[in-house]
Amino acid sequence: MDSDERAIPPEEAFSLLGNDTRIDIVRALWEADEPLSFSELHDRIALRDSGQFNYHLNKLVGLFVRQKDGKYQLPFAGHRVIGAILSGTYTRHGESATFELDTRCIECGGTLEAEYEEEMVTVRCSSCDEQRAMFGFPPGAFEGRSVEDLPRTFERWLRNAFSVAADGICLNCSGRTVGALVTDSEHFGDDQTAGVEFVCERCGDYVSGNVGTYLLQHPAVVAFHYDRGVDLSRDSAWELEWLGEDDARIVSEDPLSVEYTVELGGDELELTVDSDLKVAVRQG
Question: For the chain, first and last CA: distance in Å?
């Protein structure tokens, strides 16, 4: 699909929102949750001058506000504006904090902690300092969640971000992501044998992880755990020993291919991942 010929420069689009009244209009339409007439919308805005109100409203119509059958409502772009406001991504600066995750480190048995700084979450062990994950997290996501909710929230955020990227969609710009099995990446630790990386072809944003993180969503792995009493859609994955270990074994370098063992309760599931990230379950 070609780009819409009506597309406007980003600086012009963002400048349309640089006014309190226009933001109030977008908020009012969102709060109404139904189309509003001109008078209904005007009554909800603290601007009595109808001429000035009409001027600002017309600036938004076409991109951030839709007019249909004499009424106004939010299109997709308008809802995204509200989402950006509520998430705090552009309007808040998250306070630095450390949260205990009440989850044990598989390396030393210490407690995992999540450090939040500069809108980034780093999950590491408080005892051996082993890092488990690092990812962006908007300040608004803390709102309405207790400290007890955060471990699951952090994990689900990370897993969903990885899953979306694996499905070919960039969370940053909605562009197309391309994944690969790699052995050399600036995003991997020095002791990591191989890993999986998804890079957006448009904005260059990336998501990376070990091979186990990629396999976590595979149907065979999900079923393997479910049959042994672990529901990966509900239960935490932080304490899965196989997930925290770098268990990828290179079996071919050209083309690149690795073997991986998922172990639970003494049972093992053997898998192979090739350079195109195709997964094969190896029969024992």
Answer: 46
